[in-house]
Amino acid sequence: MATSQEKVHHLEDYKAKTYTEESIQDVGKASPRDMGKAAIIIAILSVVLLVIFFFGLNQNLAGLTKQVAKLSSLEGEVARIDETVTAVDARMTELEKLPQKTRNMMIDQSLDELSNRLNYMSGYLGDEESSDKLYQAMQLLKQVQAGLDQ
């Protein structure tokens, strides 16, 4: 079995070494370059990117604000259109009733004509009983006419 040797160094070995100026410069050359410049460049680039994103978002919000303003102006137009549609619906309802109204007007005129004829005939009849019956018929015609007007 092979035994492994421990690599132990004494502290005095390190204390005894003296470092010269050349050896210190050699250590600086071997180490990576100074990262301060890279950090400054990265910081500047990040600030530039933040400014670009800020102005881009600001323009998007300005455009969105304009669109919302346009939509709010359209809201009034939609309300006017809704009122117009309601008025047109009311007119259409009246137009749908027009044939019935026309028929009622014709019937009303015919009943009025009948009533006038009965009134005329009642004047020629000498019989009071017949005149009363014609008067009752005229009253019934007037009731029918009143029902048509409603």
Describe this structure in words.
- It is built from 4 helices and no strands.
- The protein has helices at 11-16, 21-30, 36-124, 128-149.
- The longest helix is centred in the middle third of the chain and has 89 residues, at 36-124.
Q: Using DSSP, what is the number of strands? A: 0
The number of helices is 4
Beta content comes to under 5%
Chain-averaged pLDDT: 80
Tell me the major beta sheet. none
Helix-strand topology string: HHHH
Shape: rod-shaped
Radius of gyration: 55 Å
Distance between the termini: 125 Å
Q: What percentage of residues falls in helices of 4 or more residues?
A: over 70%
Low-confidence parts, pLDDT < 50 over ≥5 residues? none
| Helix/strand class | mainly alpha
Give a topology summary:
Elements: H1 11-16, H2 21-30, H3 36-124, H4 128-149
In summary, what is this structure?
With 150 residues, the protein is mostly helical.
Search tags:
150 residues, mainly alpha, 0% strand, rod-shaped
